[in-house]
Amino acid sequence: MPSPPLLALVGPTASGKSEAAFVIAEELDAEVASVDSMLLYRGMDVGTAKPTPAERARVPHHLVDIAEPSESLSVWRFQLLAREALAGIASRGRCALLVGGSGLHFRSIVDDLDFPATDPSTRVALEAEAASLGAERMHQRLTTLDPEAASKIEPGNVRRTVRALEVAAITGRPFSSFAHQWGQYPVERVRAAGVTMPPDALARRIAARVSAMIDHGFIEEVRGLVEAGLGGWLTSSQAIGYAEMARHLDGELSLDEARAAMVKRTRALARRQLAWFRRDPRIRWFEAKEGGAADIVGDLVEYLSG
RNA sequence: GGCCAGGUAGCUCAGUUGGCAGAGCACGCGGCUGAAAACCGCGGUGUCGGCAGUUCGAUUCUGCCCCUGGCCA
Known about the structure:
This protein is an alpha/beta fold. The chain has helices spanning 17-28, 53-58, 75-91, 103-110, 120-133, 135-145, 147-152, 158-171, 199-215, 218-227, 242-249, 255-278, 297-304; strands spanning 6-10, 30-35, 61-62, 95-100, 190-196, 283-287. A 6-stranded parallel β-sheet has the order 3-2-4-1-5-6, sandwiched between helices. Strand 2 (30-35), helix 2 (53-58) and strand 3 (61-62) form a beta-alpha-beta unit. Helix 1 crosses helix 13 (297-304). The longest helix is centred in the C-terminal third of the chain and has 24 residues, at 255-278. The protein starts with 5 loop residues before the first strand and ends with a helix. The structure holds one RNA strand.
């Protein structure tokens, strides 16, 4: 890890992180490394509230627009690319400002998580088994193979159960043996500021942002992506708004229903993001009001510049 | 004004032959290592419209009142 600690600005979606990040990065002469699982995809701009090219020309942004929506960029690959990006920033003698709300991606950068390998054919076989046997039977099998992992994964969670079985099958090691660092949060690695906001203020910002997206070409953006093949189990097709708007274009949902679903999912996302970051003891929290993180940028700069 | 239907959780409603009120959604909380904006789990938050009456006990039965919707004037 680079000797000046990594700087980070985290928090729930719609809290104004990106906006504040420009100012902070300029103040601190930093480059932004996005920690966002959806900003990775090219062409998904409006619905992800991606900083515009003009904004990104002002301050260099990394880990944005590095994959096609038709591919799924896993956390594992994100970690590799993030390390490259960070090395590049360090080689320029600048410091990196991590900005985003994807908790696992954040930890993949600051905590050197060791993601065990995957194998498509093993995965497919296990998924087929799970489909016929059911989640509980797979979970029972995991209990005999890796009791520790099984105790942490809910019996109804097929996806994680299958993944744990897959890891055991390919690596010969129990899935749980890869999670050693999970409960550790090395403080020296990162200086992180977190943005919170009163729940009702955040809810209003989310509703306003969803409406603004729809007014600024989101429907056209999704139409184009669907025509280009977005759909199925692609990561990109599960992004909030894209799934709902595709259904609207299919005539399954009215525009108002799609809008309401977007707001609902975004609020649920914000809650989960907060739950994720809340227990990271490294994060120093700053409460913003209706105006979002931009209004408290002075405090953020002061803390991050240490 | 008359007749009918209804008033129970933030919303839509169920229910109690009279015995501490319950579903879905919303909301809150939690978990998380190669799909993570994914995936999974936990939690009922309440003057049962108001005031009287009957009763050991009323959200439930009775009376009056208030409110909402529909139909008729």
